[in-house]
Amino acid sequence: MNPVVLAPSLLAADHADFAGGVAAIERAGLGWVHLDIMDGHFVPNLSFGPQVLAALRPRTKLHFDTHLMLLNPDRYVEAFAKAGADRITVHAEADHDVARTLARIRELGCSAGIAINPDADPSATFPHLDAVDLVLCMTVFPGFGGQAFIAGAAENIRGVAAERARRGLAFRIEVDGGINAETAAVCRSAGADTLVAGTSFFKAPDPAAAARAMAGA
User: Fold this and answer.
1) Choosing a second label site near 18 at 20 to 30 A (CA), which of 10, 34, 41, 56?
2) Choosing from 14, 36, 97, 193, which is the catalytic residue?
3) Does pTM top 0.85 for this prediction?
4) Catalytic pick from 65, 74, 133, 176?
5) Can you tell me the distance from the alpha carbon of 137 to that of 164, in angstroms, rounded to the nearest whole number?
6) 193: annotated active-site residue
7) Is 97 considered catalytic here?
8) Would you write out the chain's pLDDT as a tens digit for each of its 217 residues?
9) Contacts for 52 with CB less than 8 Å, ≥ 6 apart
């Protein structure tokens, strides 16, 4: 299994001080930041665009784990790649040619990921597993932070992990939504190795300690 990585979601940071949020992640000794990009169409919320990544990129060497919750993600992958994304994840349920979008992400020099919502069949990812570096199994319905973990989503993690093992692949399995020390343990047990945490990291009295607890360290 891949080593466990915690990727705090900037969506839960102070939106008037994203640079401070990035600095908090660095102080906790972490290497990734998760960037939730929402368009108000694919999900019922708006967040921020590539200009935020471009502004933050010179300030940090954190891995920009960029999650496009967009109706037409293929139209925006180039803008986010140019803004400094290291990894771009797109949804299987969005309105695009998934294989072509993943290929374009790799052409742009980024790692590629595919995401599914909690009510999806994990087999929706299977045709693309050879072309991705990460599968994101949402553990809440995307759109808003602070939601409760959907326990049934663990079955998606197990399904993807079983297929990863069957095919001898090494892509990461990421989870996002309602992740805290308790639910992170459930997800790690199911096969996840990459944990997105928002509120449980940024609102913790000791974010570094919270990160260690979630990672099982």
Assistant:
1) 41
2) 36
3) yes
4) 176
5) 14
6) no
7) no
8) 799 999 999 999 999 999 999 999 999 999 999 999 999 999 989 999 999 999 999 999 999 999 999 999 999 999 999 999 999 999 999 999 999 999 999 999 999 999 999 999 999 999 999 999 999 999 999 877 777 899 899 999 999 999 999 999 999 999 999 999 999 999 999 999 999 999 999 999 999 999 999 999 6
9) 18, 35
